[in-house]
Amino acid sequence: MGEDSPRVGGFSAGLAVLLNGEDSNKKSPKTRLLSCCDDLGQQSVERTLEYVFGLPNRSLNSLTGPVDCKFIRSVIKNDFLKYNVKLSDSYGERDGICFNSKTGNGHDVIGLEETSICGDIKVIKSPFLIESSAMFSSARASACVWKGKWMYEVMLETSGIQQLGWATLSCPFTDHKGVGDANDSYAYDGRRVSKWNKDAETYGQSWVVGDIIGCCIDLNRDEIIFYRNGNSLGVAFQGIRKMGPGFGYYPAVSLSQGERCELNFGARPFKYPIEGYLPLQAPPSKSYLVTQLLQCWSRLLDMHSVERAEHSLVQKLRRVKRFVSLEEIFHPASYAICEELFSILEADVGITEYMVWGPLLSFMFEVFGLHAPHDYPSLDKVVEVLLQFQGSHVLFEHILNALSCGCKIASLILTECPYSGSYSHLALACHLLRREELMMLWWKSPDFEFLFEGFLSQKTPNKQDLDSMIPTVWWPGSCEDASYEGNMMLTTTALSESISKIEEKHRDLCRLVIQFIPPTNPPQLPGAVFRTFLQSLLLKNRGAERNIPPPGVSSNSVLVSIYTVVLHFLSEGFALGDICGWLKSCKADVGFLHRGGEQSFPVHLFLKNDPHRADISRLGGSYGHLSKLHPTIDHEMEMIQWDEGCMDSEETRVTHSTREKPCCCSSYDSDFTRNFKVPAKYLAKGSRGHCSSIPERPAHVAAECSDGSLNDEITDKPSSSDQSEPEYGYRQVHHMKSVPKDTNMSTATLREEELLDALLWLYHVGLAPNFKQASYYMTHQAQSISLLEETDKQIRERAYSEQLKHLKETRNEYREEVIDCVRHCAW
């Protein structure tokens, strides 16, 4: 019978659940019979509340008054806390650690020891996002350990030379020596894939931006181990020297110039906690209590969702007046839970960050869902209740911080596609920021631009990540299993779908920022905030194209993400009508790049001597050289106008919604298949495969061209890419003229012409280096395939055993190189 009954929360209806207060081998060994509320609508209000708050069956007496917030608070104070307050967190024996500082509440707090800093280390963002402004900077933390098993985490904001690990007070820090350069000093450097203890040895994996490095020390076994994103890199050091109380090992880091990382000693929950290792900073003792409170709220939300789905049945059962409506319980219970939550946080403000990054964020993801379809109504109810409290803004500031950080460190996992990577964090952030109150809170934050860049970040995989993301590899002429081709196609398609989902959320977020109008005087137009962010991004990344970029530049993934967003807006339009009604009066939201009729462009955008563009080379030389040859003062106020004739026809217009796709979004799958079928062309064309979708001229445009037109001259010339010119397409520009620029246009308006100008700069700084890297891998792949084929030929021709053995070893090396290149090219 139990199998036939409905199930809520995983329990069978009609059964009580025999549970311990916590783990059976820890905490309270006393078992108790918990109330179960599976038959929704068929339980009294007492039994329902017992289920929601995890209380023993029939522990609540019959009600004599209304079910209001005051009554629910009494249940929490008198019953819930009685069964949960003693089940406080136990983090094991914390003997063996010494702290140099405490807070006003008596908590042991770990920071950087100011007197230990050598070089110039700046705190970019509290608490411990640091950057080196000197050529080489080092610092120790303000706590040391001499026995037990301890760890801390480092989140990489950059992926250059950093030495992370442990050091004693006897290890000197200088302009050239840091962590790992002395006897009792041990470090890991993922840029050079080495471990350091006076001398360097090969160790670990190469690291990338967004990696979480776990630095673990086991003083029971006298060894040090490093972890990358929760995966062990193996024992790095054994037999390290034992220390005594107060003379132990300190967490320590050394950074080269411009390198950034964020240290977490335990002030936030670890992203990848390692079993058996304790955080240097103990988690708040109320963590378990807050988690249980939020679990009560989660059960209440689950029951409320089920009641909505079974509304008619519930109403029938309530006619006998024995059962209470969950709608009547939901609001007072939710409010009472939040009251208790905020009272805990207000009693010790130092624990707020930990509680939000840990229990509260996990609860919100549980309610919202990690993938579509998301439970928007339930999340809205949670947000509405939280916003009624005075301290809610602090909570949501931490939530936005945590979501932005989550985008930086989220990896694409093949088995989770298409809702993998940063998708869930972006989806939750976008839904929260649809509320004007929360968008205002974000905009007023001093970290607005920093968090915006975090949301636009995407984690780049290293070699080991690509191995797991693309497990099977195939290339033309390979001797691999025939099924590998299909498997690789399925894999790349799944990964592409995940990236498309993430890019869609990037666009949603940017649309929300574009439509947001801040309460400033004088009032601003929609798009002003996004325009300001874009200008700041360009200025921040001055010199990013240099071989050694200056400190503080943005991650490449941020530049690529904003490039794809702007390109989509210019190609397809902003599509803001469904969000805020802006531009709703437009006949059609046709993208700037696909608009026909009379067009114009301000010349001065390309002629400005902006600081972030001055170093970029142009056709003909540097800006300074060109400005001397071609003075631009007389033309700064001019607008060039022309007729874009070939874009007038609906049949020939190329957009994302038409059969022919624009070059910015050509189908990867079709290109991938076609290129593999013709490997010679694939290798010759390089990265040109995304420029093949612009159609031929329409007939009415062709008729306007003279017999001796430029197009005829081009058609007679051979193509350098083994492709006919009509595939590149033709756009007729006629009736060109110059007119004075409209001086009445607000300088704060988001203009599509400026977006195009920014797009070209983003391509130069963000995408061009990636294309160079892709070109390298494609060239190296072609060379490795040739060497592999030549080796296979020699193996078939040689019969001598010694030589054959050597050839087979060489072949394996070439094969691994080919596989590595194919994975990088596919990515």
Low-confidence stretches: 1-33, 311-323, 578-587, 666-734
Counted beta strands: 23
What is the CATH class designation of the domain at 97-279? Mainly Beta
The rounded Rg comes to 31 Å
Largest sheet: 8 strands, mixed
- The CATH topology of the domain at 97-279 is Jelly Rolls
Look at the structure and name the CATH superfamily of the domain at 97-279. SPRY domain
**Rounded mean pLDDT score:** 80
- The helix-and-strand class reads alpha+beta
Number of helices: 23
Keywords: Metal-binding, Zinc, Zinc-finger
Protein name: E3 ubiquitin-protein ligase RNF123 family
GO molecular function: ubiquitin protein ligase activity; zinc ion binding
GO cellular component, one term: cytoplasm
General description of the model:
The protein has 827 residues and is α+β, with helices and mostly antiparallel strands. Among the domains are: 97-279, Sandwich (Jelly Rolls); 773-826. The chain has 23 helices and 23 strands. The chain is globular, with a radius of gyration of 31 Å. The model is unreliable at 1-33, 311-323, 578-587 and 666-734 (pLDDT under 50).
What keywords describe this structure?
RNF123/RKP/RSPRY1, SPRY_dom, zinc, 23 helices, 6-stranded antiparallel β-sheet, 827 residues, alpha+beta, 14% strand, globular, Jelly Rolls
Please provide a brief summary of the model.
This protein is an alpha+beta fold and 827 residues long. Among the domains are: 97-279, Sandwich (Jelly Rolls), CATH 2.60.120.920; 773-826.
